[in-house]
């Protein structure tokens, strides 16, 4: 799908690289499981079933978990109107629109491709943002759809899900044979499956986090260029990020599981070197600095903000 969103070759290279590395890791992982479990059919059924479910139903699962419902233009005229304008400006298909009834100000896009994408915002976001700020957030999420990184993240996270499942199953079941075969050899096989699954999960976790951080910067840049207002997007970032302390804990717990796809993380911890390495989003200040640089080139006044405020 071509659109007027600014192309990002670095994002494309990173997505292809991550998919290639994860695919290679997946082949090795599957080969080790087949060697340990002595069952090609079992491995293929588990892997294939999970991949199909995650890829095909990712949008429905996300909406269900966030307690969101699709809304019609009559139910949310302001939201639909803004998306209509931005999609016309970007020359891209309009995604389905959903609304999550929570005070947490945030948004996300999900779906396996542009024709099956859904853009969801919370009621808290609509209450807090001005129209130009809302346009910046919506353009950010539409950029994820146009650049196809939503689908890439969905596929890439599959291996981590499978590896994590391998760890859990390995801990709670024998994986092979019945009671008569629960001997020392079986125990060693189970431990080996857990070890391999844990290693694969750790590697996939790091790769996906690295891609996730860059794609947020890429979406910020593309959205700011499309709307021509980096300052509005910067203002929205400040409002959304600064609202966490006032949000009910149940909303934060619900959204935290989807941090990787949210416009801004639901919970932010200390921004040390280690935590940044494992975070799904770049630090707020880095995003604001990038928007400030872009603003200087576009002649727009960006919001001034420092980490100490």
From TrEMBL:
One of its GO terms (molecular function) is zinc ion binding. It comes from Streptacidiphilus fuscans. Belongs to the peptidase M48B family. GO terms for cellular component: plasma membrane. It is found in: Cell membrane. The chain crosses the membrane at residues 12-34, 40-57, 150-169, 189-211. Keywords: Cell membrane, Hydrolase, Membrane, Metal-binding, Metalloprotease, Protease, Transmembrane, Transmembrane helix, Zinc. It holds the Pfam family Peptidase_M48. Binds 1 zinc ion per subunit. The keyword Zinc applies. The keyword Cell division does not apply. Coiled coil: none annotated. Zn(2+) binds at residues 140, 144, 216. This is Protease HtpX homolog. Residues 74-293 form the Peptidase M48 domain. InterPro entries: HtpX_protease, Pept_M48_protease_HtpX, Peptidase_M48. The lineage of its organism: Bacteria, Bacillati, Actinomycetota, Actinomycetes, Kitasatosporales.
